[in-house]
Amino acid sequence: MDVQKENFSEWYNEIIKEAHLCDLRYNLKGFVVIPPNAAQVMKLMYRIYEEALERKGHRPAYFPSLIPERNLKAESEHVEGFVPEVFWVTRAGANELEEAMAMRPTSETAMYPMFALWINGKSDLPLKIYQSCQVWRHETKATKPFIRTREFYWIEAHDVFATEEEALMQVREDMETTDEILGGRFGIPFIFFKRPQWDKFAGAVDTYAADTLMPDGKTLQLPSTHMLGQNFSKAFDVKYMDEDGMHQFGWQTCYGPAISRIYAALFSMHGDNRGLVYPFELAPVQVVIIPIVKKDTEAEVRKKVEGLKEALSAHFRVEADFSNNTPGFKYNKWELLGVPIRIEMGMRDIRKGACVLARRDTGEKREVKLEGLENEVRKEGASLTSNIREKAFSWFSGLVHSADSDSGLAKAVEKGGFVRIPFCSDRMEGEPCAERLKEKYSVNIRGSRYGEKERPSGKCVGCGKPATIYLYAARQY
RNA sequence: GGGGUCGUGAGCUAACCUGGUAUGCUGCCAGCUUUGGGAGCUGGUUGUCAGAGUUCAAAUCUCUGCGACCCCA
After folding, report:
1. Straight-line distance from CA A334 to C1' B48, in Å?
2. Closest residue to B50 by CA to C1' distance?
3. Percentage of chain A with pLDDT > 70?
4. Based on the domain organization, do A301 and A425 belong to the same domain?
């Protein structure tokens, strides 16, 4: 890498190019080609996420990507929020269509008419469905690979319950899932914010979103989970029959982890000046073996390395690099690609029944006996994962500030990250204050921290009225 | 949405101002050679974003479109 991570914007573009994460040459704005280097990681992320959702009672399904115009328009707030960025299909072959079809920007309006048919009685509840798919939104903001594209890859889980309590429990479960996967498995720190009323998902009662930070201190929204209440069930007639034989509207939630965007957070969070760094379980290649050959011993080293590769392949994703490049070139190449464990093997090692094991995160090299190597790799891999996770979390926690005045906010914003400020209200009446702060400091109000117990003191930084709540401000992507 | 920078083989780039044969590096292919932190030699390989205009002549000048990056909202 020729650029430093301190200059994040350049680093981001550079790593995408150097590590072949994204091919930008497809000539359609906001649409990118995702080649194998990135797609492999995204697939692993998908599997981990899908497995977790299924473990928690969700079942997979696939819904059509086209939505008839009248479905999309059935819930009024939802339409208002999404229609400005919908791609429409209006023509098929030579003919104009009688009814325009929307390319799904999200699938509520594709799924819920079907949910209405699927659900009859209480025994059909809860209904927990997810699908892995692409969605399309004609973003008007500047597009950026993985972070904001007009087509992106995600999972959307849509659940229906008989009671409000159960739906609220589901929102909590979604947050736990996010903790478990994003925090635990991917090593990405974040805070769950309850979005202010003026910034919730179109059609939702409440929105909770996991916000992480990028290396430049700007925040990026990752999965969000929404309490939909009965807004959609009433619009789409999603009803069940209760004990008294009465029809009742279901209580709904939805949850949307955008895999392509989480991937951006993943490599931005853990990458360094040498290139990518992946948690062990997400690395497309987990172990790379570099043979150190001399002309006269080439055959022998090759045989040993191939044997080692085969043995390790039973447990890990392994590559051996026999290309005609120098070892140094190979080290740099595979470090750029984020391979967690590198094994160097030459005659020197073979004579000792050993190899040299190097770790991507720390760069440490040490000699390891071939006997028991599998366990060493496993151990170092796990240690790498927890090391980069800890590093990320401790960096992140240093970027949560608080301020109680205009000047304090201005100063804290400069440091990057989140700034907790006293605020008048997170209901609609607070919006003008948010607008004012946005105008003045280019910050967005992300909402109140989920689980925050502390009562606010002082005055709203926006308007000076007595504060009723702590909200968090940050510059955002 | 506003402002700025820009588009030349697969990648980076020179030539553009002042119109006339398109430069170099990297990559890729073949061969030789080499391998414990980005080796070397020889040969080969592909190009002016699209369209229109001005001109004897356009990578170069003009307009439109498409696309990229940066800053701001």
Report:
1. 35
2. A27
3. 100
4. no
Between the alpha carbon of residue A101 and those of residues A53, A91, A96, A97, the distances in Å are 30, 9, 11, 8
Tokens 């819930």 belong to A75
Q: Which nucleotide is nearest to A328 (CA to C1')?
A: B37
Nucleotides of B under 7 A from a protein CB: 1-2, 10-11, 32-39, 66-73
Q: What is the ipTM of this complex?
A: 0.90
Q: pLDDT tens-digit profile of A52-109?
A: 999 999 999 999 999 999 999 999 899 889 988 999 999 888 888 999 999 999 999 9
3-state secondary structure of A243: coil
Residue A231 — pLDDT band, cuts 50, 70, 90? very high
Q: Quick one: A254 and A326 in the same domain?
A: no
Distance A223 CA to B15 C1' (A): 50
Let me know whether A203 and A111 are in one domain. Answer: yes
| Spatial CB neighbours of A232, under 8 Å, sequence gap ≥ 6 | A75, A78, A108, A112, A203, A238, A252
A27/B54 CA-to-C1' distance in Å: 29
A146 CA → B15 C1’, Å: 36
Closest nucleotide to A330: CA versus each C1': B38
Å between CA of A29 and C1' of B18: 36
> What would you report as the CA-atom Rg of chain A, rounded to the nearest whole angstrom?
25
**pLDDT at residue A25 is higher than 90:** no
For residue A126, say if its preceding peptide bond is cis, omega within 30 degrees of 0.
yes
Looking at this protein, which amino acid is placed at residue A230? Q
- Smallest CA–C1' separation from A351, nucleotide: B36
Handedness of CA A98, A102, A103, A106 (dihedral sign): negative
Domain containing residue A445: 400-474
| pLDDT on residue A91 | 87
Q: How many domains does chain A have?
A: 3
- Beta strands A400-402 and A418-423 are parallel
